[in-house]
Design goal:
Layout (H helix, E strand, L loop, with lengths): L13 H10 L7 H4 E9 L3 E8 L7 E7 L8 H4 L3 H12 L8 E6 L6 E6 L3 E2 H9 L10 H20 L2 E2 L8 E3 L5 E3 L6 E2 L7 H4 L11 H4 L8 H16 L21 H11 L31 H5 L8 H10 L10 H5 L2 H4 L10 E5 L5 E7 L2 E9 L5 E7 L2 E8 L5 E2 L9 H11 L5
Helix pairs in contact: 6-9, 9-12
Length: 445
């Protein structure tokens, strides 16, 4: 009989067995074995959200776990796959990273039923809860303190500026989607309607006919514009700002529902509510208004008020805001999206420079120099540390990475658009070079 020794497995050493185990991918377990649910948070058309902690992790670190509804129910759900909306949200959230945008920890597919979960950092509150809490109070405690309003708003605008800088439209900003942690950090959440707006293959309107919750929907959307810009998000920011001041939605219209033919109705009541506060839109103030598909519907509305009444709304509560606060609100609620304030410009608005200035929260915030220049970015131990931008009073800016108050890398952009970096240092004027020298040596005030 011939020996079969050449086909037999040689005994493995303990080290070889360990190496083989390490090289094999870890077997996925059901999500219930990885996370312990602490309770239900919310439900919507997308699915359900639960609060949880890791079973093998720090029990004080909590997560919000979003479970998507399958495209089909029952057995068919195992082959149904994931919705297009969920795919978009996952793809966007995996690429975004900012202190004022909710962080996606992981995407998890349960091996038992193929359910798809998004695991987010947990935020204890949202602006809707904060508004409701204050609306139930009486006396001076009813009003949200001006400092709190300013800090919440600055962080919201900071997050929106980050999204827009990365070509992302949120398209559903409202108090319920603006989360707030127990330490006061704002986190923009729910990017289910968010879209990339850089070189879209087709108009965004073709993909989603209805975006943004009705009370926060910009006029260009209400007049059925086929093309829109990041200005739709800034209108929503203005509505949220007003709500923080008033403790109620400023434009609380009644939504007209779609009929059986899926025809999108003109939102007459919502437009009327906006006109009551801002006065009627005109072609003189908004030149492209006449090109809007629903422009002719404007003649069906009563125009009792011809002038804006926004100032009276803004100062309805004593000490709620300042003249600069009113000017910021008015700039975000411009009818014409081309004139509406951008998120970047809002961050530099005088409202955020005057006292009380927004506080630095968890290493992010702003620092105002004695000469009026403003640093917006990350801090550590009271020094610039991480990514940040210095906005100069003359219109220029300095974008840089910092470490312990000193520059690692950066570029200096003047108001005329010229960009200066260390390699073309010689092109700076003496005054520019002197200021640039100060920047490179850090600011430790």
């Amino acid at each position: 009989m011939h020996s079969n020794s050449q086909f037999q497995t040689q005994p493995q050493s303990q080290q070889q067995q360990q190496q083989q185990l390490q090289s094999q991918p870890a077997k996925k377990v059901p999500i219930a074995q990885k996370y312990k649910s602490l309770g239900f948070i919310a439900a919507g058309t997308y699915g359900r959200v639960f609060k949880a902690v890791r079973r093998d992790g720090d029990p004080t670190i909590e997560y919000a776990i979003k479970k998507f509804k399958p495209e089909k129910e029952g057995e068919a759900s195992l082959q149904a796959g994931i919705s297009q909306s969920a795919c978009r949200e996952i793809a966007l959230c995996r690429e975004l990273s900012h202190v004022n945008v909710v962080n996606l920890e992981e995407v998890y597919v349960d091996p038992l039923d193929r359910s798809i979960y998004m695991v987010f950092e947990y935020a204890e509150h949202d602006l809707l809860q904060i508004l409701h809490h204050h609306s139930t109070l009486h006396g001076s405690s009813r009003q949200i303190p001006p400092y709190t309003i300013k800090s919440l708003l600055w962080q919201l605008v900071n997050g929106v500026a980050y999204l827009h800088a990365n070509w992302v439209l949120h398209r559903d900003l409202k108090p319920a989607n603006v989360l707030v942690t127990s330490t006061g950090v704002v986190k923009i959440g729910d990017l289910g309607l968010a879209r990339i707006f850089q070189k879209p293959l087709k108009p965004l309107y073709d993909g989603d006919k209805v975006v943004v919750t009705i009370w926060y929907r910009a006029p260009e959307l209400l007049f059925s514009s086929k093309h829109y810009t990041p200005a739709v998000d800034m209108w929503a920011v203005g509505c949220i700002f007003a709500e923080l001041l008033l403790l109620r939605p400023i434009f609380k219209g009644e939504e007209a529902k779609m009929d059986g033919k899926k025809t999108i109705p003109f939102q007459k009541d919502q437009i009327a509510k906006i006109i009551d506060v801002l006065g009627p839109p005109t072609v003189e103030k908004w030149p492209t208004l006449s090109s809007m598909p629903d422009f002719n519907q404007l003649s069906t509305l009563r125009m009792d008020k011809q002038e804006s009444n926004l100032r009276n709304y803004c100062f309805q509560y004593p000490y709620s805001t300042t003249e600069n606060g009113y000017l910021l609100l008015a700039a975000t609620l411009e009818y014409d999206p081309m004139k509406r304030l951008t998120a970047d410009d809002a961050l530099k608005h005088a409202y955020f420079v005057e006292d009380p200035t927004p506080g630095i929260v968890e290493g992010h915030g702003k620092y105002i120099f004695p000469n009026g220049n403003v640093y917006v970015g990350e801090f550590k131990d009271g020094q610039f540390h991480g990514n940040g931008t210095i906005h100069f009073t003359n219109g220029g800016r300095y974008d840089a990475s910092w470490k312990d108050g000193r520059v690692i890398d950066g570029k200096f952009t003047f108001k005329d658009g010229l960009v200066y970096e260390p390699e073309n240092w010689g092109y700076c004027t003496p005054s520019d070079r002197r200021f640039y020298h100060e920047v490179l040596n850090g600011f430790n005030q």
